Amino acid sequence: MQVDRRAFLATLGVGSLELMSPEDRAEALEHYMMDELDRALPGTSPREQEMREEAEYHKQQGAQPRGTGRLLLPQTRVLEPMPPRPTLLDFYRLRFSPANHVLQSATHALRTGQPERTVMACLLHDVVLNLIKADHGWWGAQLMEPYVDERISWGIRYHQALRFYPDESVGYEYPELYNRIFGEDYVPEPYIRQAYEHARAHAWYMEARLITVNDLYAFDRDAQVSIDPFVDIIGRNFKQPPEGLGFDNSASAHMWRTIAHADKPL
């Protein structure tokens, strides 16, 4: 995806860039690219486009903190009700949609013969952005931990830090886009460096690294993707609670409820 630097900086608001840490800037860039990808989907109705533009306007005006997830931004759309016992597929259909970026990422992992754990991690790694943007690796891992193999949630947690550090063994280079947008003096926050060093020395390092490898290929405006090829993989790798996500008293049930009912005033 080609990024218009002026258009991207305009979404941050006047003077915002100078106040943001390098990590904040990288987070904002990735989220901008995901929003642009979803906005360009073929078949988007004029009304859907209008609502997205309205939400973007409110965001630029500072109506919500920078880290607010997309479901919590001001918008005129009324969210469709969730079923009584919502499944992960229900969340993809009713809350994460169009989920183009993660579907592209998982599709690439599937086509290149990655293990099912990696495919599943790619499918889940950024959906928490609907709830919150800041430190999405950590938040995303917490959201998924009760329901997936520990290696999957571990990989989701550390992919956020690994994005900034190359690994020639798997062909992952430092994103040139970061240099073009922020300059070659870009330095991640100390806690990101610490997380990278911890992950690099860990036996599960490749669980997170493979997410970043497949992440790079997931911003193609012309790609046609669907959740359908992943239904069986989800069935084998996601522990769907019979009570429904948000109602099983897990450590992250409250997060699923917030996503499900993001437009409730209280």
Keywords:
266 residues; mainly alpha; 14 helices; 52% helix; 0% strand
Q: How would you explain this protein's 3D organization?
A:
The chain is mainly α and 266 residues long. The protein has one domain (5-260). Helices cover 52% and strands 0% of the residues. It is built from 14 helices and no strands. It has helices at residues 5-10, 16-19, 22-39, 46-60, 88-96, 100-111, 116-124, 136-144, 150-162, 176-182, 190-200, 205-215, 231-237, 253-260. Helix 6 packs antiparallel against helix 7 (116-124), helix 7 (116-124) crosses helix 12 and helix 9 crosses helix 12. The termini are far apart. The mean pLDDT is 84.
Helix content: 40-55%
For the sheet with most strands, the description reads:
none
Mean pLDDT, all residues: 84
Q: Based on DSSP secondary structure assignment, what is the total number of beta strands?
A: 0
Please tell me what the overall shape is.
globular
Q: What's the domain count?
A: 1
Give the N-to-C terminal Cα separation: 38 Å
Radius of gyration: 18 Å
User: Which residue ranges are poorly predicted, with pLDDT under 50 across at least 5 consecutive positions?
Assistant: none
Total helix count? Answer: 14
Q: What class do helices, strands and sheet pairing give?
A: mainly alpha
Strand and helix order: HHHHHHHHHHHHHH
Taken as a percent bin, the fraction of beta residues is: under 5%
Short overview:
By secondary structure, this protein is mainly α. 52% of the residues lie in helices and 0% in strands.
